[in-house]
Amino acid sequence: MADPSSSLGYDWFYGTYQYVDADGVTQTTHDMAPDGRSASGADLVSSAIVHRLTTDLLPLIDSEEDNIEYGEDVRRWVGAGLTADALAARAAALGPVIERDPRVLSSEVTSEISTAAGALFIFKLFISAQLRTGETIDRVIGVSDVTVQLLAEGR
Amino acid sequence: MALTISDLWTRLTKSELKESLLDIAQASGLPVRDWVVGQPSERWLEVIPRVLDQVLGTVILQAVQGFFLDQATDPGDPGDPTQTEIKAGWLSELGRQWFSTERRGQIFATGTITVTNNNATTQYLAPGELVVQRSTVADDGAYPTYTSTADDTIYTGPGGTLELLPAASADIPVQADVIGTYSNASSAQITVLVTGTYGSLAVTNAAPALGEDREDAEDYRERCRRAPARTASGAPTASYEYAATTALDGTPLQRPDGTGVVSITKVFVDDAITEAGSVTVYCADGDGAALAADIDGAHANITGIPDGVLTEVMGVVPGSVDYATEPAVENTINVVGTMKIKTADAGGLTALELQTIITDALAEYFRTFPIGGLDQLSGAGKLYTGDLVGIAKDARPGFYAPVITTPAGSSTNLALGEVAELDSDPSTDWVVTIT
Fold first, then answer.
1. Which member of A132, B66, B72, B290 lies 3.0 to 4.6 Å from B91 by CB, making a disulfide possible if both were Cys?
2. pTM greater than 0.80 (yes/no)
3. How many domains does chain B have?
4. Residues of A in contact with B57 (CB under 8 A)
5. What does the alpha-carbon distance between residue B17 and residue B53 come to, in Å, rounded to a whole number?
6. Does B407 sit behind a cis peptide bond, omega within 30 degrees of 0 on the bond before it?
7. Is position B46 within any domain?
């Protein structure tokens, strides 16, 4: 249950969301939940982290060039020549990107390239973030050229 | 809230719209000024002003401006809120439907080049396949190019080609690849062959290739203002002014020799000022006195006597009048002065660049300055030095301490039929001191 008094914020829920469509098939989407639910605290920050890892520039009135450097769209990393070492170096640089969120005190990101044939995701990112409230959140996201999906979460 | 008419055609910035939204939200009890950027609720504060800007700043603003000749613009005009691409829009539509007056559009530069075959073999040139280039660079650092155009009287060889024997020459028509005056070329400037498939060809142009930019918005508005006079009886002054620039069908007046549209933008009508029973129309363009071909076009259209390609002419001169069309008499006015600007306001520009900004502003002022000047008495008026000081100072924010030493007096007299022509060299007539 979302807590409106959370010091980390209270807002509409958005993020990886699963629902069963009219044909009875489970669909996964990264959006606001159709039931209009809310989120707060670490869940809200977690969604913001995924948002930040799928968005380079964010429009912001009065900012230079009408945009700010918000995050890094990791889907654009998918492509030929992405070695494990290159991916690891890029992933390590995501820590400061996530720390742009004023609710995040520190963050570390590691990576793993998928080796299995027919894998759904090209690589995974393992995110560990310490929040200003003292909580620690750990997230694993899978990345393909079209989607970023939250695969596991823990605190 | 009381709205003035100028409120309706003033575009609010996105920042102002957002600030207004935040104010209203706060007044409604919503604490809206401390969001984490990127959160869903914060994004709505970004989305709403942008949507309002698209609706208010383009659609509604244009619709309001479209009612007023002084405010309406076409895409590509200074201040147009939509886009920079030059095309017809509200202003052209307003002028066409309310004043039956067409705005002159951009025109491709066209001309004829002489091609000489320096190969040992016969070449077969096809229309549209020969590309040539101007030898002088344009302002953007590129070289304008031109492509050969079709002409059934020239391409009479096998397969619709032009058969060019070794050492033979032929004249073929070309058209610029970029519309407007960008591609204008003087004689002997189109000398570079781009197409490589014809081997060694020498090219040159004996006559200039000239295009046209779109008619200046304010020049067009002025023609529209004169338009109602064409239905008046008794040949009022405005009917002469309109006929000097605009054809019977509302389109820009053409030169009788077929070399393009007349470039007259300023007209003064001496209607019995100098002599009872006589009318003389003086014409000028943005640079000074009107060209002879432009005078011919204006004369034919005003008198109603067909000339060259002008077969459908207006004719506004009453039969009892002794009439003449004349180019305005140029009165060259040297403008010399000094200006100061703080380093912080100079924006890194050199003194010469700043001086050029001043002379460009003065040139724009002279471009529309009326024949005979201001405060006319019997067609003779003045050019005020104080006005020139103001134009120079306003040429760039931060300019201060303007001084104009020439003209020396407070004003310069212009006689009836005289047009002021600017003579002001940025490198020798102006000194800008960066302090």
1. B72
2. no
3. 4
4. none
5. 8
6. yes
7. yes
